[in-house]
Amino acid sequence: MRYTFLGPSGTFTESALLSIPETHTSERFPSPTVPAAFRALLLDQADAAMVPIENSVEGGVSATLDSIAREKSLRIIREVLVPIEFSLVARKNINLDDIQRVSTHSHAWAQIRQWAEQHIPQADYVPEQSTAAAAMGLLENHPTYDAAVCAPAVAQNNPELTVLAENIGDNKQAVTRFILVAKNPVIPEPTGADKTTLVVPLPQDEPGALLNLLEQFSTRGINLSRIESRPTGQFLGSYFFSIDADGHLFESRMQDALRGLHRISPQLTFLGSYPRALYEKNTVDPVHADKAFSQAEQWVKSLLQ
What we know:
Alpha-Beta Plaits; 6-stranded mixed beta sheet; about 30% strand; single chain; D-Maltodextrin-Binding Protein, domain 2; 5-stranded mixed beta sheet; 10 helices; about 30% helix; alpha/beta
């Protein structure tokens, strides 16, 4: 297996990938952006890609949500949760008061904003593709900023960097969710602790349009653990919904819900059914169990005989 991840080396995304034991002995290489990681999959340069999709503080990662929504052949096969801790690093040991510009990923900056306002209020934010890329930028001949916010491992692996402050996140319990994506993979078998990810365009902008979509889940006893709206980019007011639903494609209730969704929104995209990272068993009411669907189908068939 060949794996790619949002790089460079030292990102939280690489940590998420390395949490999977089988990746330790496989080929791994960084991609500069999420779209680049997906492009490596589509060009068969990699077999799977690890990318961030959601943060407990900042919410969904728009680059991932938008990119994966456009690619019909990509599927999520696994998710990983990584606790997040940030350090402030610099090329030389300077005082916090001397920092005029600091760089990091936008999600990282959102998670240390209060700390920054308190300790380096004079510093301007410079966005970068990843936290590790921001730290590596300090090692260039003429860096355009004075400090970077990154994972502690980056400073540990690069002695040229000096740690100015540790554990600077505003929320010490922050967690980021990462997904392992592959091209047209075999759907993992259900475990009883699964989730299904979908992209559902809003078919018509009218009263009750979203309710019609949500009812396809609620009437079948399916809980939604995440729902986010994203613009399609076609025109103002055109949106799709990125949805995580508790359950697996191989379950009758999920198949029935997808049939209902397809009638309402034929352009919906199935992005995979896979085990939940915390392996918490999904609770299914008896009236929504496979047995109940099977019995109902047999009863209807008996009426047609």
